[in-house]
Design brief:
It comes from Salegentibacter holothuriorum. It contains 7 helices and 9 strands. The strands form 2 sheets. The chain has a 7-stranded mixed sheet, sandwiched between helices. Strands 4-5 form a two-stranded antiparallel ribbon. Helix 1 crosses helix 2 and helix 2 packs parallel to helix 3. Helix 4 links the parallel strand 2 and strand 3. By secondary structure, it is α/β, with parallel strands linked by helices. The two termini are about 40 Å apart. The radius of gyration is 20 Å and the shape is globular. The longest helix has about 35 residues. It has 2 domains: about 40 residues; about 180 residues, Rossmann fold, CATH 3.40.50.150.
Length: about 250
């Protein structure tokens, strides 16, 4: 009886120790990734990160993908911290990339635009304010009712072809069920042969269902990470950020 109790206690303690070590490693990985790309801005800048922000790990993966696969036509749904880093990377590397960032909140879109001008990045990204509107049934999924205003998106993206990077971090999940589904049905015919699609917040059930639907539609596999997932073409170069777990002990 005592032996069984000791074994049970040891198992519990070992499990807790492993959880703590795993969390410490995740924190170290996040700090490592953030330090890598934060150098794009100098000490006089401040890019806000909130609980709504896309994670530093996701941003580094996106920046890797842009650099390694030399992305030329980038569409982002949901403007925020990633918008600044993508625009700054395009500027620093002197890429001739077209970058659109779509935002449904008018005040936030205006604030993002103001800060982009402050950092002299307004020529490297076009902020598109597109309020949420009723979505066409062919672009919707299950109970989804609204998405970004299609007429406004078509106005800016009508001539855009060969989209090779899509970042989906909007609209916010509470706006309608399956709020982010329409991104790929809308862009499907514009995707080039070699592309990557990032979807944030796949720890939520609806986002996970969304990317599984995209995977089936595009006949591509999904790679899941801590809080995001990615669909990539087989012709892409690997852009997954370096993991501290790969370091020798």
């Amino acid at each position: 009886m005592i032996k069984k109790l000791k074994k049970k206690i040891k198992g519990f303690v070992d499990g807790r120790v492993k959880l703590i070590k795993d969390q410490e490693l995740k924190n170290q990985q996040t700090n490592f990734n953030y330090n890598l790309f934060s150098n794009l801005f100098n000490e006089e800048s401040f890019i806000p990160f909130s609980t709504w922000s896309i994670s530093p790990n996701t941003i580094l993966h996106i920046l890797n993908d842009i650099t390694i696969n030399q992305r030329q036509n980038i569409i982002e749904f949901g403007a925020g911290a990633s918008t600044f880093y993508i625009a700054k990377l395009i500027k620093v590397l002197k890429f001739n990339s077209v970058f659109f960032s779509v935002e449904s909140d008018e005040k936030w879109a205006a604030e993002i635009q103001r800060q982009l001008e402050l950092y002299q990045l307004e020529n490297y990204v076009k902020i598109i304010y597109a309020p949420l509107n009723e979505i066409q049934p062919k672009l919707a999924y299950n109970e989804q009712k609204i998405w970004y205003d299609i007429k406004i998106l078509d106005k800016y993206m009508h001539d855009i072809e060969n989209v090779d990077l899509v970042v989906v971090d909007g609209p916010f999940g509470g706006s309608t069920p399956y709020a982010r589904y329409s991104a790929i049905p809308f862009l499907r015919k514009k995707l080039t042969e070699s592309y990557s699609i990032f979807l944030d917040d796949v720890n939520r059930s609806q986002e996970r269902e969304i990317i599984n639907q995209w995977s089936t539609s595009l006949n591509k596999k999904v790679k899941y990470f801590d809080r995001y997932a990615i669909i990539t073409s087989e012709t892409n170069f690997e852009a997954t950020p370096f993991q501290l777990t790969n370091l020798p002990l």
